Amino acid sequence: MIIVGAKGFAKELLQIVSIDMGLLDDDIVFFDNISSDLPSKLYNRFRILTSFKEVEIYLLKSEDKSFVLGLGNPLLRKKLFKQFMQLGAQPISIISKNAEIGNFEVNIKVGATILSGVKISNSVNIGIGCLIYYNSIITHDCIIGDFVEISPNVNILGRSNIGDNSSLGASSVILPDITIGNNVIVGAGTVVLNDVPNNSTTVGVPGRIISKENKI
């Protein structure tokens, strides 16, 4: 399995992949073609691939073609998701054994990562490549778009709709029946009382729009 990324969030995913899933050290590799301060092996145990050429060689030699997204930024997740698909890698979803997922009408699309303490109720759709961080709650009849980043302790209440590529800051609250557009940034601690249009940034209690210039 390839964990795309080798810092920050990638290290947190390692806990699930190594401990929850029980993969051996040799079955886990990381990818980082940007950082110049990394060792050849993370924790002196896990190999780090540093170019797409190395990824191609790894995929040719390995029976396991799976990859997971170990980075947070929605647009970067989307970009690397497409690049790894083009290389022939196969995205999978990673869900902590300590997450609580409803049993009825919950649809989690490929490439999602769901960490410990997350609670997802029934009748919820989770899009491609989403990241749902520790202790966030998504209640009934919510729709989460593709490559959405949901930071720790976010609460998304009933019948809300979160657009593609949006990022919800830590401890933000989305009240019921709210629509968040595509490519929206919701600041940490924001309480969203009204719909938020595409490409906007909203902050504060109650949330107020401070920009409509986010770029996709």
From TrEMBL:
<keyword id="KW-0012">Acyltransferase</keyword>
<dbReference type="InterPro" id="IPR041561">
    <property type="entry name" value="PglD_N"/>
</dbReference>
<keyword id="KW-0677">Repeat</keyword>
<dbReference type="Pfam" id="PF17836">
    <property type="entry name" value="PglD_N"/>
</dbReference>
<feature type="site" description="Increases basicity of active site His">
    <location>
        <position position="141"/>
    </location>
</feature>
<comment type="similarity">
    <text>Belongs to the transferase hexapeptide repeat family.</text>
</comment>
<keyword id="KW-0028">Amino-acid biosynthesis</keyword>
<feature type="binding site">
    <location>
        <position position="72"/>
    </location>
    <ligand>
        <name>substrate</name>
    </ligand>
</feature>
<protein>
    <submittedName>
        <fullName>Sugar O-acyltransferase, sialic acid O-acetyltransferase NeuD family</fullName>
    </submittedName>
</protein>
<dbReference type="GO" id="GO:0019877">
    <property type="term" value="P:diaminopimelate biosynthetic process"/>
</dbReference>
<dbReference type="GO" id="GO:0009085">
    <property type="term" value="P:lysine biosynthetic process"/>
</dbReference>
<feature type="domain" description="PglD N-terminal">
    <location>
        <begin position="2"/>
        <end position="83"/>
    </location>
</feature>
<feature type="active site" description="Proton acceptor">
    <location>
        <position position="140"/>
    </location>
</feature>
<dbReference type="InterPro" id="IPR011004">
    <property type="entry name" value="Trimer_LpxA-like_sf"/>
</dbReference>
<dbReference type="InterPro" id="IPR050179">
    <property type="entry name" value="Trans_hexapeptide_repeat"/>
</dbReference>
<keyword id="KW-0457">Lysine biosynthesis</keyword>
<keyword id="KW-0808">Transferase</keyword>
<keyword id="KW-0220">Diaminopimelate biosynthesis</keyword>
<dbReference type="GO" id="GO:0016746">
    <property type="term" value="F:acyltransferase activity"/>
</dbReference>
<dbReference type="InterPro" id="IPR001451">
    <property type="entry name" value="Hexapep"/>
</dbReference>
<dbReference type="InterPro" id="IPR020019">
    <property type="entry name" value="AcTrfase_PglD-like"/>
</dbReference>
<dbReference type="Pfam" id="PF00132">
    <property type="entry name" value="Hexapep"/>
</dbReference>
<dbReference type="InterPro" id="IPR018357">
    <property type="entry name" value="Hexapep_transf_CS"/>
</dbReference>
